[in-house]
Design brief:
By secondary structure, the protein is of the alpha+beta class. Helix content is 25%, strand content 28%.
Length: 180
């Protein structure tokens, strides 16, 4: 992304009340495999990937790219939160030529229902507001993913449109920029 590519990466770890958002490390590899192989985690994200394939292709230090934070609870990876450029060819646009930062997140099932996703996403949105002042952030989720829909509302995302993609109805929303 033009804006995010210009941001120094990785930033200092971001601490919340219970979590640390940080760059990935070699110790996170098993967590990445688990996230991507999990049928529960990947229900609305195209399904799980084969574990043996992931073991072969995931690098020693996975997810080392601008905008990807590991969600760390007491020294252990429980998920990821990402801020990355939404592909221009995908449906869901604020305007035809706008570069859009898209929020994404995945948490291991044992971390669900504890408020960690909201805490991590709020911290990531705060970081983004400071790193890219004035840049709106978008979020896209299947309407069938009720948990994600509730989180989008809790985070302050407002619906822009709905459309069909990947064989399912998608909800596309925007969170207005906040002061950093």
């Amino acid at each position: 992304m033009t804006g995010l590519a210009l941001v120094a990466w990785p930033p200092a770890p971001i601490r919340t009340g219970r979590l640390v958002l940080r760059a990935s490390e070699a110790r996170d590899r098993a967590g990445f495999v688990e996230l991507l192989a999990s049928p529960e985690v990947r229900t609305y994200l195209g399904g799980p990937r084969p574990r043996d394939e992931l073991e072969r292709v995931i690098p020693e230090i996975p997810g080392r790219r601008p905008g990807l934070f590991v969600i760390d609870l007491d020294g252990a990876m429980i998920g990821t939160v990402t801020l990355e450029q939404r592909a221009a060819e995908r449906p869901g646009r604020l305007s035809p030529d706008a570069v859009q930062v898209e929020l994404g997140y995945m948490l291991l099932p044992e971390a669900w229902g504890c408020g960690y996703a909201a805490e991590a996403c709020t911290a990531a949105l705060g970081w983004c507001a400071g790193a890219l002042p004035g840049e709106p952030v978008v979020l896209c989720t299947q309407t069938a993913n009720r948990r994600s829909m509730r989180l989008a509302a809790k985070l302050g995302f407002a619906e822009v449109e709905r459309f069909e993609e990947f064989g399912a109805e998608q909800w596309f929303g925007v969170c207005s920029p906040v002061a950093g």
